[in-house]
Please model this.
Amino acid sequence: MHRLRAVIRWFTEDNNLFQFFTTATGIAVCAVLVNPIGTSGTGLAVLCLLVVNSVLLCTRLIPVGVLPPGPQTAVLGAAAVSAAALMSQDHSGAASLFAFYAAGHAGFRLAQQRALTFAVLTSVLCASVLLFPIGSAYGHVSWYLGALTGISVLVGISNRSQADALSSARAAAEQAELASRSEARAEALAERARIARDVHDVLAHSLAGVNMQLEVTDALLEAGAVDEARQAAQRAQSLVRAGLTEVQRTVRDLREDALPLLETLRSMLGSSPGTGTLTLDGSPHELPVRPAQVIVRCAQEALTNAHKYAPGAPVRLRLGYGTEETTFEVVNSAPPDGSRPLAGAGSGMGLVGMRERVELVGGTVTAGPIVDGDDAGGWRVRVVIPA
Model:
């Protein structure tokens, strides 16, 4: 069954189908026109030579590469010799078709230099059997016809060049498809990493705030401040609800093409513990989807870090709209006296993920402590994204 499918596939290819019909047509024409054909004497010899030439002509249907160069040259040589022998006995000149086929096939199957040499030898051989009284066809067919048989090698060389060009084009198309698949896989992996970072940012931002409020609640309960502890617990509940909202927003952002940047930043500030402000510079306008998502994720990570390492410190967000770049800053002041970083804070992935995310849109991130000014002892994260 597998071989049958291979044969069917071979015949359904355009070039192979053309080869089959031209071969069948050549054999049919010679069978009708070549003479004399009989069962004795010269007629029997012509009939036998016609069968031999037909069988050798069918070898052009063998797929390229099956026969090594040596056996292929031997088969073509036998085809040329048998074609010349038939021409020496044929009175019609139709037997020259076999010689034309042999030279053309040599141009397609052999290297160019070897094919040209083969064509010259075929022309000399066929012209010789017609020019000299070798067979019964002497005087019936002009030797010029035999001398021209090698010219069909040019057709074979041309077909070989076209086939090589087509093969190269197919190989290039396959390589392009493989490259496209590799690129799509790389993009899918990058998107998977981005989703993982987004989920990390959302959960870290929410859980850090909840953890802080629970620690406050525990401290207040130990101090006997039940009412204040209840308020802290309520703030923790509020943060949980806000975290769920953020998770839903993240899922929606991953599916949608638009991101309400300003509304998202204000919502994040409103759901965060402590005080925070948002300042806009320049003329606000809608940013492309990916830069807007990057800014939101950077804001989540920066706010999370601020609440982890400087709980209770005021936080300022600044979004600058420029003609050539968009800047985003998160600045937290020094933590108030008596505050301490949350226990177990930090996964080590926050700033690394932030830089990776910003680099995907061609931007840069700078982060570090503030050593002078009103915010000395605090921390600044600055994101710059090309417009």
Q: What stands out?
A: The chain has a mean pLDDT of 81. Residues 153-223 form the longest helix (71 residues).
